[in-house]
Amino acid sequence: IDISLGGVAQDQEEAFAGMGIALLIAIALVYLVMVVSFGSLATPFVILFSLPLALIGVLGALAITGKTLGLPALIGVLMLVGIVVTNAIVLLEYVIELRRDGKPLDEAIIEGGKVRLRPILMTALATILALAPLAASTESGAIIASDLAVVVIGGLLTSTLLTLLVVPAAYRIVAGWQERRHHAAEERERKAHERAEALISS
Q1: What are the CA-CA distances from residue 158 to residues 56, 141, 164, 184 (Å)?
Q2: How confident is the model at residue 5 (pLDDT cuts 50, 70, 90)?
Q3: What percentage of residues in the chain have a pLDDT greater than 90?
Q4: Can you give the pTM of this predicted structure?
Q5: Are 51 and 85 in contact (CB under 8 A)?
Q6: What is the DSSP letter of 142?
Q7: Helix (H, G, I), strand (E, B) or coil at 103
Q8: Does the structure show a pLDDT above 70 at 12?
């Protein structure tokens, strides 16, 4: 006996598969755009660390409100891909700018966090307050939009708070490793130059 899904169940399964593919494509496109903008493969990867942080808030918000991870919620997750990385970009872009101006890594991270803290919090708060009435709506016609709003609010809450901690820490690790590798390469080049000069002089 063969059992297969049909009707509404089949449509829902296809919709979930389509949203999963769309989510992966969105993440890949965001990553490629950041690679071009930053001229680096590592920094955009650090910024993508903010996406799992949003997922914590998404699942928590759904659990608290008793809502399910349906198609409207997945659309909200798709929206979060673009919204969440913005905070990390705003933060790290300024940190990188400070480093180009000659600031040491640790000082650049601390100052960048201080300067960018207020605009990041204000942007997140404005978005959350704008979606709050929609998330609290109990009208039958607003149920779908309510699920989407709950997901975006939950993801934005956790990603904003944790991005200010986790992303700078991850960037410190990656940038510190890059600095050490660069210094090691310079040291090898210096020693090779010294050996070459010693051979020439002898």
Answers
A1: 7, 28, 10, 38
A2: low
A3: 0
A4: 0.75
A5: yes
A6: G
A7: coil
A8: no
